[in-house]
Automatic annotation (TrEMBL):
PROSITE patterns: HTH_GNTR. The keyword DNA-binding applies. One of its GO terms (molecular function) is DNA-binding transcription factor activity. This is HTH gntR-type domain-containing protein. It comes from the Bacteria. Coiled coil: none annotated. Residues 19-87 form the HTH gntR-type domain. InterPro entries: Aminotransferase_I/II_large (IPR004839), HTH_trans_reg/aminotransferase (IPR051446), PyrdxlP-dep_Trfase (IPR015424), PyrdxlP-dep_Trfase_major (IPR015421), Tscrpt_reg_HTH_GntR (IPR000524), WH-like_DNA-bd_sf (IPR036388), WH_DNA-bd_sf (IPR036390). Keywords: DNA-binding, Pyridoxal phosphate, Transcription, Transcription regulation.
Length: 460
């Protein structure tokens, strides 16, 4: 039986230095491989052994190995261990030329832990139902509407008395129906700024969008534009800054809706993965139920490819909306989602994703919170975070440098309304990434920040 070679290369890791331990370890092992101190095809010590010899955590050793693996210095053999790669006459190609792109511009759920068995069973049983001869109810199957109501009550604490739940093929359909019913063919919409670009684009196709400024506490309810028909806010987790609307501003929204006759519209997915110890009352519970609405889907929990969304509409608008509703989702989709909701599958998936995202947020905070001239926002809830940069470091320069390392991030400027002075920062969406890809992206980001003369605080 062949045993891994004893590590004969002197490795000295300096605690308290600016450079993280995994960077020091990866750098020293890399130099040992290039110099021939670690021979080609020789077996590397296990991460557990290496951690014990050096007196470090196994996570540090694992992170260093992952980096060398991605750079092509070592390779893993299933069931056999980790080995030094054969060297050719040319040095290993730069990571930017060999590694796949890691895209942090995406905002989609993790595929890890997807309830595939329950998903298949729900669709299989849905396919056994005979299609109704008289067609589907315009607003969706009653059982599905009741299941969505129960889900929103459990997940968000929403009491939807005074509202109706309607089912639509997509979120854009739900927005169109609501805005047309409230504001006519060209409604005036005040949208919290900054906000997700896809939400602004969807609203911009339906009416005139005006920016509603926000600060560290969320939307500025004292700056609602005059004569707008609808105010769109994200009170539980204003994206991309992760702000949370305080109670007094929620009451201000309720007063505005009462006094103006306007509609407060809230995305129902807002705050879904937010575990706050002090829950605040949802806006619909503070305002007249005739003046609040929600729009959502299950793309954040299950899959963006599921063509089924919903709207929670005031009863004063429900009759008008049902008269102009398009054909709804197929009955098979409605039956399958009904079962996934009533069986508890969706709530279990929310809990599983919440745990996954908490672990990923911890990695993001560990990597980025120690830069004294930056601010990391939104990294305690959800699956996105924003890194605000000093004016001396343009976000466009950081984005370009990361792109050269095959890491894609979005500028904060893309989240602002045209004409609004944008913040200087980058937005990271990491919910869909596996641990290795996230670590690689964060390593590239810390290297890029270092090249822009941003240094981490020295550990105590």
């Amino acid at each position: 039986m062949r045993h891994p070679q004893r590590l004969s290369v002197p490795v000295h890791l300096e605690r308290g230095l600016i450079e993280p331990l995994q960077d020091q370890l990866a750098g020293q092992l890399r130099r040992a491989i290039v110099r021939g101190q670690l021979a080609p095809r020789s077996r590397m010590p296990s991460t557990r052994t290496l951690a014990g010899v050096l007196g470090i955590s196994r996570g540090v050793a694992l992170a260093a190995y992952e980096r060398l693996l991605a750079e092509g210095y070592i390779t893993g053999r299933h069931g056999s261990g980790t080995y030094v790669c054969e060297r050719t006459s040319a040095p290993p190609r730069p990571a930017a030329a060999t590694e796949p792109v890691v895209d942090l511009r995406l905002d989609r759920p993790s595929s890890h832990g997807f309830p595939l068995a329950a998903w298949r069973a729900a669709w299989r049983r849905a396919g056994l139902h005979r299609p109704p001869l008289g067609g589907l109810p315009a607003a969706g199957l009653p059982a599905l509407r009741a299941a969505i109501t129960a889900h929103l009550q459990d997940a968000r604490g929403l009491d939807l008395d005074g509202h109706e739940v309607i089912v639509t093929p997509g979120r854009a359909d739900a927005l169109r129906l609501l805005l047309r019913a409230q504001g006519g063919p060209d409604p005036v919409i005040a949208l919290e700024d900054p906000a997700p670009p896809e939400l602004r684009d969807a609203l911009g196709r339906l009416g005139t969008v005006l920016p509603l400024p926000s600060d560290g506490s969320g939307a500025r309810t004292d700056r609602i534009p005059a004569a707008c028909d609808v105010v769109v806010v994200l009170p539980e987790r204003g994206g991309p800054l992760g702000t949370r609307l305080p109670l007094e501003r929620r009451r201000d929204l309720a007063r505005w809706a009462h006094d103006s006759g306007g509609l407060v519209l809230e995305p129902a997915f807002d705050g879904l993965f937010t575990a706050e110890p002090d829950p605040l009352p949802p806006v619909p519970s503070l305002a007249d139920p005739w003046s609040t609405a929600l729009v959502g889907s299950f793309s954040e929990v299950l899959t963006p490819t599921l063509r089924l969304a919903f709207a929670v509409v005031p009863r004063r608008l429900a009759g008008e909306i049902e008269q102009v509703m398009p054909a709804g989702p197929a009955i098979t989709a409605q039956l399958a989602v009904t079962e996934l909701l009533t069986s508890g599958c969706v709530s279990e998936r929310v809990a599983g994703l919440s745990a996954q995202y908490a672990a990923k947020r911890a990695l993001v905070r560990q990597a980025l919170e120690a830069y004294p001239h930056t601010r990391l926002l939104g990294a305690h809830t959800g699956a996105t975070a924003t890194l605000l940069l000093p004016e001396s470091v343009p976000a466009a320069s950081v984005v370009a440098a990361l792109r050269a390392r095959r890491i894609q991030v979005a500028e904060l400027a893309a989240y602002h309304h045209p004409g609004v002075r944008p913040g200087n920062g980058i937005v990271l969406g990491f919910g869909h990434l596996d641990g290795m890809s996230l670590r690689r992206a964060l390593h590239a980001l810390t290297r890029t920040l270092g090249e822009h003369r941003l240094t981490r605080r020295t550990a105590a």
